[in-house]
User: Fold this.
Amino acid sequence: MLVTNGGYGGLHHAMRHGVPIVIAGDSEDKVETSARVQYARVGVNLRTGRPTPDAIRSAVRRILDDPSYAANARRIGDAIAVASGAPGLVDDIERMLAVRA
Assistant:
């Protein structure tokens, strides 16, 4: 399990490896990444940048008690593992441009 402020790099790394997340971030892009963690049910969004120890403890317990968070994190990790990444994006753009030409 990762307890984080919601930086994109750490989130991506955790999800790539199927690790559920407790997220507490409210600056920069962290509101958006927190919402995505919650929506995908890969973790618990604490909806603040300054969570209390009790809130963190409760979120950790929730994830440990509910195996669906780990299952969802593994599902997304599996999808990331087979994704073609930046090279695949380049290939897609080149195909689109070839169709337009």
Observations:
- The chain has a mean pLDDT of 94.
